[in-house]
Amino acid sequence: MRYHIEHETILEFVHPVREHHTELRLTPREDLNQKLHSSIIETDPPGKLGHYLDYYGNRVDYFCVIQPHSRLVTRLIADVEPLRANPFDFTPVPPSEQKEWYRKQLKEEPSLNDYHLHRSSVVPPILKLTAEIHRALPRHTPESPVMSTLLALMEWIPTVLEYRPGATEVHADLLEAVRKGGGVCQDFANLFISVVRSWGIPARYVMGYQAPELAATTGTSQVATHAWAEVLVPGGGWIGFDATHNLLANDRYIPVAVGRDSYDAAPQRGSFKGDDPGNQPVVNISIGCQ
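The structure corresponding to this sequence follows.
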């Protein structure tokens, strides 16, 4: 399935700002499981665009608007084709060989340690959460097939969190969501990642889009960015787990940026100068996917 995406963000300021530096992680990823046919970034006021690949392999488009402005528009127009129709289409490594498989992967690619050693307020050590979780945590043992344990974990997450739009803010502490017993897709992904890392298995955060028919199942009519987790599975590579919907990510999921947590994969961030310290923008985002 090929998708056409238009993602527009408008920042509006009460007072003009200047020297506005912006980074965008909006261009969909391209790898063996996804083909990027075209991608265009537009800005208003216009800025000279540059780009680079960050540490996690995300394309970062950046620009600067020097002159004073009260409105900044950024727009992505892209055509992309996810290719992983069946996430179960791989030969699993026998449970007795899983530990050695991970050892070899970490030795050959030491950067994978970032995905199982990293902790932050959004993906904290699991012990920080256990006092607030009143259900037994799933366990993983060396004798357990990794995929079976991960599927059981994905079913367990909704017993701890209820999906509640607007319940938490972007980059909110995971402990806040667990205490409330509800959150948004970022919280579901972060809890999944926190548990998987406690097992010593690499897991990473994914920001991207879902096909419109999947996005509608969350009870909102507007397409928005979505978050899920990917886990390094023996024999299968990076496989996506969407705990919000209890689904494996297939060709109806469009990965855009990955990282240790949501901070690494933020779609837009920047800094600016102005004369009013409290001059924060009103943000309006519209996304079309078809």
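DSSP finds seven helices and 14 strands in the chain.
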